[in-house]
Amino acid sequence: MKEDISLSVIKRLPRYYRFLEMLKTNGIARISSKELAERMGLTASQIRHDFNCFGGFGQQGYGYNVPELYRKIGEILCLNAEIPTILIGAGNLGKAVASKISQRQSGFKLIGIFDKNEAMSGKIIHSIPVRHIDYLENFCIDNAPKCAVICIPSNDMKELTDLLCRLGIHSFWNFSNYDIAMAHPEVLVENVHLTDSLMTLSYLTSTESEVE
Asked: Per residue in 143-198, pLDDT tens?
């Protein structure tokens, strides 16, 4: 990521990408920053600022070419990169996450799935056999994955993440509550705290009811 581009701008890019995909699917070939802002609940100046971080894509008096902008944002997000990725935890959450990675271009290519439950060994998830966690180290040495998706309880995390970092993993998609970045500040971590999100919704829903 360029140092002069804020993380908040980067985090808005996937939302732009989704909206542009819907526009493209609906046959809309051109859109102004004002029209896009109205659809997304942003301001036109915010959109222009975000896009100008990458050189700007619009033409004055024309607006944005939707298919072209969609393609360029996909390139910025490196969605064709196919970063070699492993997934730890083949339970229900792990299966759902594996499906999300495998169904469309995400920038990542799932090459291995691991679980400590011996009953899962040999099962196939999206054409990938589940291996027992004991095979993790040798697999990483042989295949050099760059990213790990974590879908296991936090109590198993310290030893696992220490091992993965030693094996060259430098980015994590973390669905556990374990703070990987605290123990390994040198790696990239995107945390997905499902319970935190649910608790936030609980608060908002309850306080809305109180207002009513």
From this structure: 999 999 999 988 889 999 999 999 999 999 999 999 999 999 999 999 998 889 99
In degrees rounded to 5, what are phi and psi of residue 122?
A: 90, -15
Which residues are CB-contacts of 191 (< 8 A; sequence separation ≥ 6)? 174, 180
125 three-class SS: strand
Q: Is the CA virtual torsion 80, 82, 26, 58 positive or negative? A: negative
C-alpha 71/C-alpha 90 separation (Å) is 33
pTM of the model: 0.88
